[in-house]
Amino acid sequence: MSDTASPAAASDRQRIAEALAAPEPLNWVLTGDSITHGLVFTEGRRSYAEHLHELIRGELQRTRDIVVNSAISGHRIVDILGDFDRRVASWRPDIVTLMIGTNDLSTDGPVVSPEEYAASLRDFVSRVRALGAVPVLQTPPPIDAANAPERARLAEFADAVREVAATEDVILVDQLARFTELGAGGIPWGLMGDPFHPNATGHAALAVELARALGIRPAPERSRTLPSLEGQVEALRIRP
User: Fold this and answer.
1) Whole-angstrom Cα distance, residue 72 to residue 40?
2) What is the rounded CA–CA span in Å between residue 142 and residue 188?
3) pLDDT at residue 131 above 70?
4) Taken in order 186, 192, 197, 201, is the CA torsion positive or negative?
5) Among 51, 36, 38, which Cα is nearest to 136's?
6) Whole-prediction pTM value?
7) Nearest CA to 168 among 214, 141, 137?
8) Handedness of CA 106, 184, 198, 36 (dihedral sign)
9) DSSP character at residue 111
10) What are the pLDDT digits (tens) for 70-87?
11) pLDDT tens digits for 116-130?
């Protein structure tokens, strides 16, 4: 679910809409951890970053746009900040999306507080804006805490993302809220590959929600991907 309340976030959406309507090519950077990296649990199918690539460079016919996935499995927000030039700035981005937190919230290793995590998110947003790019924050998808007890702090960290997005006037893609809706208030088991990695259909859900937030909607005569992804996701929705 996407937050549309913030005037600045609405302005960022307008910037994206105007950029998509213009002929000049755009650079898109998607970064984060293993979920965005999109390996293993997609089982040879496409990750949400790859679906976005098809939507932009295929169905929107923006063939000169560049879509970069700089996510690295196992990373936390501090890892991205420590390698910001390579992961983000060097690509001269116009739009930067970030999904991070699944490892930050883990108590298996150095323990990070939600406040420290939020401060790092603010730093990230500030750096992206300094590049002249539009930042987009995503909450992580759900976690089966019964089978991943070291990652039981998801609610606190998702709230931190929401709070930073609200106070920094950033576009928010609330993937956790969307997955919870698809799970009828719980975890949508058919969209998960393990306790905290979405499977290929889970990546379809991530792609649909991100595309919606970014205003990526191909013309009906060229739209193949989104209807297919939406159908896959709806088929696995848990009905109350």
Assistant:
1) 13
2) 8
3) yes
4) negative
5) 36
6) 0.95
7) 137
8) negative
9) -
10) 999 999 999 999 999 999
11) 999 999 999 999 999
For residues 176 and 153, what is the distance between their CA atoms, to the nearest angstrom? 13
Residue 240 reports pLDDT greater than 90: no
> What is the pLDDT at residue 4?
47
| Mean pLDDT calculated for residue range 7-31 | 94
Residue type at position 152: A
Q: What is the pLDDT of residue 60?
A: 98
SS3 state of residue 217: coil
Which of helix, strand or coil describes residue 105? coil
Please state the φ and ψ torsions of residue 97, each to the nearest 5 degrees. -105, 145
Please determine, for residue 161, whether its predicted confidence score (pLDDT) is greater than 80.
yes
Length in residues, the chain? 240
Residues 6+ apart with CB under 8 A from 35: 71, 99, 102, 140, 141, 197, 198, 206
Listed residue (67, 68, 52, 69) closest to 225, CA to CA: 52
Query: Edge-to-edge strands of the sheet including 95-99?
Result: 2-3, 171-173, 134-138, 95-99, 27-32, 66-69
CB atoms within 10 A of CB 230: 15
To which residue do tokens 């790859």 refer? Answer: 50
